[in-house]
Write a structure and sequence with these properties.
This protein has 316 residues and is of the alpha/beta class. Helices cover 41% and strands 21% of the residues. Helix 3 packs across helix 4, helix 7 packs across helix 8 and helix 13 runs parallel beside helix 14. The structure holds guanosine-5'-triphosphate and magnesium ion.
Length: 316
């Protein structure tokens, strides 16, 4: 399906195809899942033409009703990417899921980036070893992507470190607009490079830093929402696993329970398929808890960060 040229969509000639490709919609899937208004803003194609093209694209992509049994069978064929820790994989139902958006939430030093680095290696493993048999796109917004860690983690997983490093495409995003621009190009880039895992570490830090104060909150949330949904469409259309990281912010209104809550409010909470909270545990271990997942029970797992990436920590 991915190989299907967009010119095979009824109603698309070479001129329209060129515009769509240049605007970052190079496949039938990317056209089928994008809101028409977004395509209108990025091309000079008329609204009615876009609607017709999209309807044809959706028919080719079979984005229509399915039986629950078909949906079930599709879910069974979803791949899971190992995190390197069996405990953590277990609470995730086998690992990080494709076709979905997984959010890692935690304070500084809880292991969000270390999990992302480990996944960048394990995603390259063949599926029988718990990988996705694909390449990786890593959007680094904080300048914390440490390439030397990739070499260490790849060795630990039996991969040639230099080869593994060649399969990870890293972009440093300098501000939120740059981050959004990079996300805009993912439909094209992921197809070109056979990416099966996309990481945005962190999704929120530029937004929090740039849109300061109450008066800018609505605009910030709207933009964040738009790009989270773009990532979901990418995950679903191409069968990619998307992982984003998020911070926690102190919430002064809390009288009981954990005073820290995930940043990004409802927009973030609603967009992410699986949310995982990370905390520091005893003896240098880390504790992960799944929250708000439509398919996973709320369970805890203990892991540790080592030279080899993420590994199991003994249960106490
Ligand atoms: P922020 O991005 O600051 O919010 O934190 P984070 O959640 O991304 O934390 P990160 O994943 O960077 O985890 C940092 C922790 O990993 C620190 O406690 C480091 O000591 C630990 N760490 C990083 N590299 C290594 C390593 O090679 N060996 C070991 N044992 N620990 C490491
Ligand atoms: Mg980090």
């Amino acid at each position: 399906m991915l190989e299907e040229d967009i010119e095979s969509i009824p109603g698309i000639g070479p001129k329209i195809a060129k515009q769509l490709k240049e605007a970052g919609y190079p496949t039938v899937e990317s056209i089928a899942v994008t809101p028409p208004k977004e395509i209108m803003e990025k091309t000079s194609i008329g609204f009615n033409t876009i609607l017709k093209i999209q309807q044809a694209a959706r028919e080719m992509f079979s984005a229509s009703f399915k039986t629950a049994q078909e949906v079930y069978e599709q879910r069974q064929s979803m791949k899971k990417c190992t995190t390197g820790s069996k405990n953590l994989d277990h609470i995730l139902g086998g690992g990080i899921e494709t076709h979905a958006l997984t959010e890692l939430i935690g304070e500084y030093g809880t292991g969000k980036t270390q999990i992302c680095l480990t996944l960048s290696v394990t995603a390259q493993l063949p599926t029988y070893k718990g990988g996705l048999d694909g390449n990786v796109v890593f959007i680094d917004t904080e300048g914390t992507f440490m390439a030397e860690r990739i070499y260490q983690i790849a060795s630990a997983h039996g991969l040639d470190p230099a080869e593994a490093a060649k399969n990870i495409f890293v972009a440093r995003a300098y501000n939120s607009s740059h981050q959004c621009l990079l996300i805009d190009h993912l439909f094209e880039f992921c197809k070109e490079r056979n990416a099966k895992l996309v990481i945005v570490d962190s999704m929120i830090s530029h937004f929090r830093g740039e849109y300061f104060g109450r008066e800018n909150l609505a605009e910030r949330q709207q933009k964040l929402n738009r790009y989270l949904h773009k990532l979901i469409r990418l995950a679903e259309a191409y069968g990619i696993a998307v992982v984003i990281t998020n911070q926690v912010q102190a919430s002064p209104q809390t009288f009981y329970g954990d005073p820290n809550r995930p940043a990004g409010g409802n927009v973030m909470a609603h967009a992410c398929t699986h949310r995982i909270i990370l905390r520091k545990g005893g003896k240098g271990t880390r504790l992960a808890t799944v929250i708000d997942s439509p398919s996973l029970p709320e369970e805890k797992a203990r892991f540790k960060i080592t030279e080899n990436g993420i590994e199991d920590a003994e249960e106490k």
